[in-house]
Automatic annotation (TrEMBL):
The lineage of its organism: Bacteria, Bacillati, Actinomycetota, Actinomycetes, Streptosporangiales. One of its GO terms (cellular component) is membrane. Residues 1-98 are annotated as: Disordered. It comes from Thermomonospora umbrina. Keywords: Membrane, Transmembrane, Transmembrane helix. Residues 87-98 have a biased composition (Basic and acidic residues). This is Mce-associated membrane protein. Residues 24-33, 41-51, 60-74 have a biased composition (Acidic residues). The chain crosses the membrane at residues 102-123. It is found in: Membrane. It comes from the Bacteria.
């Protein structure tokens, strides 16, 4: 009778899966040292979406930076102190210039300049008029003084030429008076052999009308008379003379006198 062999169970005999039991438990792939586990497909998709979003964000940032470059650079504002970093203040937008305001400013400056020029011109003309009037007053003074001296000077030795000087120094009513009384004056001076000389002590122009050509002077005059016997008489008189402007200058048109005293020697 044949011997029945008892089956030997091998530990490495595969189970129902067909794989050895120990191998089934340890057959998972082992990660190599220094390598990372691979991500799932879903993780790869998320990474791609994130990268696309980052790219879009970077594009927007670059656009913003380009717009910022077009604007004026920020102005650095210095701090009051304390070691704080300076703050950056965005520059204010420039206001457009107002052309109307500019024109108004120019017109105002021009008006001020014209007013100053007009004032200066008026002042200059006023000074010129004052100067011219002063010069005219001096002319009246000099002419009146010489005419009054002439009309109070007469020498029996030169009576003819002296009477001619009287006529040349007179005009109007005074001229007529000299012409009418010329013969009588000559006769008296010749008979008495008198010599009269005049000297103006003081003269003032009391009135002067440039447009009318009239003036009045007040004069203090000293007249020295020497008769034929050599006797000298000094007379002090105060006279008022009216002067009229003629083509030959200022001449005496009227002469009045009032005695102020006399002295003899």
């Amino acid at each position: 009778m044949a011997e029945t062999e008892t089956p030997v169970v091998d530990e490495e005999t595969p189970d129902e899966t067909g794989l050895p039991r120990e191998q089934e438990e340890t057959d998972e792939p082992e990660a190599e040292p220094g390598s990372e586990p691979q991500a799932d497909a879903s993780d790869d998709d998320d990474a791609e979406v994130s990268d696309a979003a980052d790219a879009v964000g970077a594009s927007d940032e670059s656009d913003d930076e380009s717009e910022d470059e077009d604007e004026d650079p920020p102005v650095e504002v210095k701090g009051a102190g304390g070691g704080k970093p300076p703050a950056l203040e965005k520059p204010r937008p420039k206001r457009p210039r107002d052309p109307v305001r500019g024109v108004a400013l120019v017109l105002a400056c021009a008006a001020a300049a014209w007013a100053g020029f007009a004032s200066w011109s008026w002042y200059d003309r006023a000074n010129d008029e004052d100067l011219r009037f002063a010069e005219l007053r001096d002319q009246v003074r000099q002419s009146g003084e010489q005419a009054i001296v002439n009309l109070n000077t007469l020498d029996y030795r030169t009576v003819g030429p002296d009477l001619k000087v009287w006529r040349d120094s007179s005009t109007g009513a005074q001229y007529d008076h000299v012409v009418r009384g010329g013969a009588e004056f000559e006769q008296q001076v010749t008979e008495l052999k008198t010599v009269s000389k005049a000297k103006v002590l003081e003269l003032a122009v009391s009135e002067l009308d440039e447009h009318a050509g009239k003036a009045r002077v007040i004069v203090a005059i000293q007249i020295t008379v020497i008769d034929g016997e050599g006797k000298t008489v000094v007379k002090l008189r105060r006279q008022v003379a009216e002067l009229t402007r003629t083509s030959a200058g200022w001449k005496v048109s009227a002469l009045e006198e009032a005695p102020v005293g006399s002295s003899g020697s």
